[in-house]
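Protocol step 4 of 5: obtain the predicted structure for the target chain.
Materials: sequence only (see below). No template structures provided, no constraints applied. The aim of this step is simply to have a reference model before the mutagenesis design in step 5. Sequence pasted as it appears in the construct record:
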Amino acid sequence: MPIKIPDDLPARATLESEGVVVMRETEAARQDIRPLKIALLNLMPDKPRTETQFARLLGATPLQVELSLVQITGHTPRNTSLDHMAAFYRTWEQVREERFDGFIITGAPVETLPFEEVLYWDELRRIFDWTETHTHAGLNVCWGAQAAVHHFHGVPKHLLPQKRLGVYSHHNLAPASPYLRGMSDDIDIPVSRWTEVRREDLPRDGALQVLLDSDEAGPCLLEDAARRTLHMFNHLEYEATTLADEFVRDRASDPQAPAPLNYFPGGDPSQPPRNRWRSHAHLLFGNWLNEIYQTTPFDAAEIGR
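Step 4 output (structure tokens):
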């Protein structure tokens, strides 16, 4: 089934060229079906690229998805045009009376700051609390995941001595989990962050279950079952070249910045990288959407009640 996104969203052309079925708003209005309402709170600087990454995965399942793009209220992005934001985004204040089957919060380039020093931290805390009453399930990514486990469980983040950048092997610790259905025992996943969450800091009451873990990169995917929420500290949504683009930016500011580990063939940055995680990205998002579909109320007004 297709994903419903705004007719003129730049991601549409990319998705259609890849064979993702994209439905126009006028076509969706004629269908007698309730699509899953998924919202993306996009905190990343390059918002069009992030929109495409997530829409690609949300639109690849048999379920019809209606994607809403959300931004922090009163925060003006520096790397995305105001015209784009005005055309395709609503602020959280504008959507806070609505209810969503799923709510995704992305990472943000603020991870070296203490949470309390992030300009929109107070609003983000209100959004976290709001998700408990207005959304059915959640998926938080990278810094968004670190912020969520800090807000709900008091889990700290720790600054790394240098940026952890590369593709790391992760162990599937919960093959019976519905979210990991069909996944391999070991999974390669892109990692890009300056901070980490450590297993020893997780709640001792089992409120957070580690689903994917790495000997080198630490916990990757946590489940907060009581909130029907997943916390993903890494980046299955990345395209094959995303880490390469980050590496180029890092080298521009620091000529000694190391190349991503386990990424370029033979460790040679002149060689095009290969995507070794795409299938697992589709599995995770497909499983997440399926769990939402199986458990969310048919009447959207009942979500969170």
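Step 4 remarks: The first strand starts at residue 3 and ends at 4. The chain has a mean pLDDT of 93.
Proceed to step 5.
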